[in-house]
């Protein structure tokens, strides 16, 4: 059994980490960041994102060369793990061959570790497959590594077999962690996983549930409920097939993306009680005092998983009208979101995809930026995305939802602090939110309201966006 763990993932921070050479983190910074996460924060896993980002593919070699004394005591692949997030060829055609290159690098990393430790150690033995929608996609990656990365070593080149010439390939197989991001995939995660696991004798299987992109696509409430439904169904599958399933959840700092901050750890552990691994993003690590961060991580590491709770499927009917309203309210805001997003600072260097600018997402037919810039843009406009779609729900329906989404009212109260009542004058459909703000007895933060009023009136400026983020304590 693996312990309950923390895993570092995407950025959402306001401030530049102390070790960064510039505001946009690049390869060398991220290698140092991985060491900082392992050595100081005692995070057990670093996700290495090959999906649309310019990352260093020699991370294992550099960590062992630069920080050898540390890694002689704590082994990569045993005490700590590097887990690549690879492109999904079914979706990301321009990046498809990067999957092959990333899988090729796994045996090479094992060679570095073997020389360093004088024994066979696989620093990388799992990969994350984003945007998974079927068992076939998982199986392809599993087979690609086993048959074509490992299998080719037995082929003959001129007068020798490949392994006789350049050495044996290790590890012999890898685990593939499906990342489910769409409503259909999340709700059917247990069925997809069951198909993939049939006939396999794995000790355990990890599965990754997205939190930010579902919130963008379907609204905050649906994202939480769908993930919690999936967690319960995965628990049932685990009991049925006898293979331990370890869920990962991709939580960010704001309620819209998970509300996982050092001072909200207990609430998140209670909300997602059956989750094994929680991602900590840059805001968690760098926008808080180091002592707070370390204490929070210790709390997660020492906590124990509990059982997932069942979800009443009748609630899905309520969510349908909520999602419809969320999409309807988002549409007139989309041009403003795109306008502000251009001025939201980036924290990682991302590759530009062919025909796309900065890896955009399409939400219900609307071209929108990725989750961090999307969330940052709406907060900068004084319209926290957590509040969109709420006008579709009655008080009794919210109460029904809160029986499953335990932190609902707490998260809404948090978002209401940053709602600018002036937005309701510009967009009449936001008036119910202004009414809700009064009903909850929440006073908007004055300084934040003043800045967002300027942005809302068309004063798009990176300085204003960062200043507002500084008042909130997070970017997006």
3D structure, described in words:
- The structure is a single chain.
- With 476 residues, the chain is of the alpha/beta class.
- The chain has two domains: 298 residues, Phosphoenolpyruvate-binding domains (TIM Barrel), CATH 3.20.20.60; 158 residues, no CATH class.
- It is 47% helix and 11% strand.
- The chain has 22 helices and twelve strands.
- The strands form three sheets. The protein has an eight-stranded parallel sheet with strand order 3-2-1-10-9-8-7-4. It has a two-stranded antiparallel ribbon with strand order 5-6. The protein has a two-stranded antiparallel ribbon with strand order 11-12.
- A hairpin with a 2-residue loop joins β11 and β12.
- α4 packs across α5 and α8 packs parallel to α10.
- The longest helix is centred in the N-terminal third of the chain and has 22 residues.
- About 2% of the residues have low confidence.
* CATH topology descriptor of the largest domain: TIM Barrel
**Biggest sheet, strands in spatial order?**
3-2-1-10-9-8-7-4
Measured between the Cα atoms of the first and last residue, the distance is: 34 Å
Low-confidence runs (pLDDT<50, min 5 residues)?
Answer: 350-359
User: What kind of sheet is the major sheet?
Assistant: 8 strands, parallel
The structural domain count equals 2
Return the average pLDDT rounded to an integer: 91
Count of helix runs: 22
CATH class descriptor name of the largest domain? Alpha Beta
Kindly report the name of the CATH homologous superfamily of the largest domain. Answer: Phosphoenolpyruvate-binding domains
> What proportion of the residues form beta strands (DSSP E)?
5-15%
Shape: globular
Q: What's the CATH architecture of the largest domain?
A: Alpha-Beta Barrel
Helical amount? 40-55%
* CA-atom Rg in angstroms: 23 Å
Task: Give the helix/strand class.
Answer: alpha/beta
Work out the number of β strands.
12
Keywords: Carbon dioxide fixation, Lyase, Magnesium
Subunit structure: Homotetramer.
EC number: 4.1.1.31
Protein name: Phosphoenolpyruvate carboxylase
